[in-house]
Design goal:
The protein has nine helices and twelve strands. It is an alpha/beta fold and 295 residues long. Helix 3 links the parallel strand 4 and strand 5.
Length: 295
């Protein structure tokens, strides 16, 4: 009998320099015991956060051929994990691929990469926002940041969103299709200066929050790292709050390991220094249950 190793179709861009997208997705999921089958949506010389003049090659045509070949081979994927998509045409390809794989009941994780800090990324427009609204309807889990959550809901970006408003956003996003909604970079309190990760599961009706330790540094690719650890943790059999906790702890550890070194932050976190910790014991204690207390 063959050993069970989850097979993940990782649909992300591939940046040559900088630690994000497939450059972090593959090592993280592999370390956590999954077989990663990459499907690059684009190839870049560097990531787009802080670098100018980067080379960019759209791979929509290749994606179509690769998906067709996989379907012909009838490859089973236990998870479909989608990140950066470059066009509405790519959104449609991913939707069709998810539909074909439904017979295998995969875990579908969609990180709707669109924007941050209240602004669309340079390669995104409102057509992509519309496409992402359709795509998340096919997801089991989505992991937007606060800006992306606002765009998906057609709301104004509010970095000081209160707890009750956050709960409303989580529920409304879940009503769009996904069973579990995770919002990153959510305010911890009304001041909006310290962030957290909040989550809602439509089936259990539970809300969760994991506070994020404040470190005065910003590294590109941490969102990809977070969702990759979350995905790997769930595929290992962890519960949602445990997976959230592990993901926040790992990102925090990676930032702390990187912060003391003098190098350009646009290069990303020093993933290589902390990757092996994903094989260590699971240490918990920071997640909070946001449901109203029962009397």
């Amino acid at each position: 009998m063959a050993p069970y190793i989850p097979r993940v179709a990782a649909i992300h861009d591939l940046s040559g320099f900088g630690r994000n997208s497939l450059s972090v997705v593959i090592p993280i999921l592999s370390t956590m015991g999954s077989q990663v089958v990459p499907l690059p949506t684009a190839v870049l010389s560097t990531h787009t956060g802080g670098f100018e003049g980067y080379a960019f090659e759209d791979l929509t045509g290749f994606m179509e051929k690769a998906i067709l070949h996989w379907n012909q081979l009838d490859i089973r994927f236990h998870c479909i994990y989608s990140g950066f998509l470059g066009s509405p045409a790519q959104v449609e390809l991913v939707q069709d691929f998810i539909t074909y794989q439904q017979k295998n009941d995969p875990l579908v994780v969609i990180d709707p990469v669109l924007a941050d800090n209240g602004k669309l990324y340079a390669t995104m427009d409102m057509d992509m926002v519309t496409g992402m609204r359709q795509l998340i309807g096919h997801a089991g889990i989505i992991t937007p940041n606060l800006t992306e959550a606002a765009l998906l809901l057609g709301e104004e970006y509010r970095p000081d969103l209160g707890e009750e408003a956050l709960k409303s956003w989580l529920q409304r996003l879940a009503d769009m299709g996904p069973e579990t909604v995770v919002i990153t970079s959510a305010p911890l309190d009304s001041r909006g200066k310290v962030t957290s990760v909040v989550a809602f599961n439509r089936k259990s009706r539970h809300f969760w929050r994991v506070p994020c330790v404040y470190i005065p540094a910003n590294y590109p690719g941490t969102g990809d790292v977070f969702t990759s650890v979350l995905t790997g943790s769930l595929l290992q059999g962890d519960s949602l709050p445990v997976a959230l906790d592990r993901s926040v702890q790992f990102v925090t550890q990676a930032i702390r390991a990187s912060y003391g070194f003098d190098y350009p932050r646009r290069n990303g976190i020093l993933l290589e220094r902390v990757l092996s910790s994903l094989n260590g014991p699971v240490l918990l204690g920071s997640y909070e249950w946001l449901d109203e207390r029962e009397e």
